[in-house]
């Protein structure tokens, strides 16, 4: 199967970060590269090779560069200035988009000016107000970080930098959906992502399915409760649909409406297949997915294999098709399959009706959300079919 494009989450610092968030799953990835301790930075030659290959791998007009981590600001602004220069050199008429996900701790006026001048879309990780955020997101010495994040956002706003927020829905803030939502609005967030935190105390070596005989599932204390995640989304949706649709975008809500309207999924979690959403480490190693950075999911290294070749490889094709193949049997008859497609394979570890451990942990929450929003989604679909903005639903849901 030929794929026209691929997405790559670039981690120029690998797993290295200046925070020690208690729930972070990526810090442990440093074990994959024990020889690179103290030398975590992506080289300029690797940067240039990646940019050249990434642009060449796309048979579409827009090329998105997604800078993440670890913490990408640790590379310094000069690194990204060189990245912009390489992009301009190899663009060949294609449109370049840079997105940048950061904890915000190092953002200052100079960073903000750079982002504004180069049209970077900045994602800020913030889990709510100080009490909710500082429960888990702390410095390496255990100190709170919330005020520094607020200062970063104030700095971005002051310099006219477009930003959105990424909120990890965890065991603490899941109980305060409206408190989280109102806070995010208060700091000027106009596009929000809510990412459910799902982590077991122990998982199989590939991070996907535990051994079929292992029926004991123990979650880490910071994990979100599935049904509570659905209630979290529903509470925010009920306010959003009446007050904020058209002014504030929420990724999961927009994705769900797109599914109702038969549009291609924009979020890999809800796509029929996986694949072509890669993660690349600082040394050029490319993995099938950010959630599957394990040796057996390594596609190759860009010094030896091109991103285009990896994108169209048999391993990538099989990884993508495995999502449907490993889906729980009851998912096929579920009325919400069109919107969910079994969710992320990383979260499939509960016993299903067949006895296999392939039921998505978040199934109860997703079902609660899809059922709760069905009436509104159907109405918005009708509006779209009649060339009317779905935001007009505010005149119905008052």
Quick structural gist:
The protein has twelve helices and twelve strands. The chain has 398 residues and is of the alpha/beta class.
Structural commentary:
The structure is a single chain. The chain is α/β, with parallel strands linked by helices and 398 residues long. The protein is 34% helix and 15% strand. It has twelve helices and twelve strands. A ten-stranded mixed β-sheet has the order 7-6-5-4-3-2-1-8-9-10. The chain has a two-stranded antiparallel sheet with strand order 11-12. A hairpin with a 5-residue loop joins strand 11 (348-351) and strand 12. Helix 1 (44-56) runs parallel beside helix 2 and helix 7 (226-244) runs parallel beside helix 12. The radius of gyration is 21 Å and the shape is globular. The N and C termini lie far apart (47 Å). The model is unreliable at 207-214 (pLDDT under 50).
Total strands: 12
Give the topology string: H per helix, E per strand. EHEHEHEHHEHEHEHEEEHHHEEH
Q: State which percent range the strand residues make up.
A: 5-15%
The helix content is: 25-40%
Shape: globular
> Strand order within the widest sheet?
7-6-5-4-3-2-1-8-9-10
The number of distinct helices, counting runs of at least 4 residues, comes to: 12
* Main sheet: strands, sense, barrel: 10 strands, mixed
Structural class per helix/strand content? Answer: alpha/beta
For the terminal residues, how far apart are their CA atoms?
47 Å
Regions with pLDDT < 50 over 5+ consecutive residues?
207-214
Average of per-residue pLDDT values = 93
> What would you report as the Rg, rounded to the nearest angstrom?
21 Å
